[in-house]
């Protein structure tokens, strides 16, 4: 039996977006009124280009710290790579606006582009695939993405079927 829960990200028309972008992807209110906001941080154009696993993995390790630095005082709960390797899912506590997330993402990626020294957490004790990293690749991809200019992407839904 297929899942019964409808996943709204599958309703985004991935052919109608223009990367790189930040898009508010969901908002959840808990029983005590706390708000969790999800954003897509899309780095490459869907179905046109994807980031190889080694640079994407290194970008993940670097964004974990740099995004938290640049989003403060908003709290980043999680930044996880999309399985399609075109960007990251951001989960935030609170309701930061899209422009704030966009500027934080730009500053964080500039920090990735300019990063020197070790990759944080890159060891067999701290990472699940520590050999699969590329700092030169991460820096180059961050620079290329930044050069294309981030936008705030509105959600363009596919027509619903049924
Ligand atoms: Zn890792």
**Range of strand content:** 15-25%
Small molecules held by this entry: zinc ion
Q: Count the helices. How many?
A: 3
Helicity, as a percent range = 25-40%
Per CATH, the superfamily is S-ribosylhomocysteinase (LuxS)
| Quaternary structure | single chain
Strand order of the largest sheet: 3-4-2-1-5
Could you name the CATH class?
Alpha Beta
Counting structural domains, the number is 1
Brief overview:
Helix content is 30%, strand content 20%. It has 162 residues and is an alpha+beta fold.
Write a structural description.
There is one protein chain. With 162 residues, this protein is an alpha+beta fold. The protein has one domain: 2-Layer Sandwich (Gyrase A, domain 2), CATH 3.30.1360. Helix content is 30%, strand content 20%. The protein is built from three helices and five strands. A five-stranded mixed beta sheet has the order 3-4-2-1-5, covered by helices on one side. A hairpin with a 5-residue loop joins strand 1 (21-29) and strand 2. Helix 1 packs across helix 2. The longest helix has 19 residues, at 53-71. The two termini are 18 Å apart. The mean pLDDT is 94. The structure holds zinc ion. Zinc ion (ZN) binds next to helix 1. The site of zinc ion has 5 residues, from helix 1.
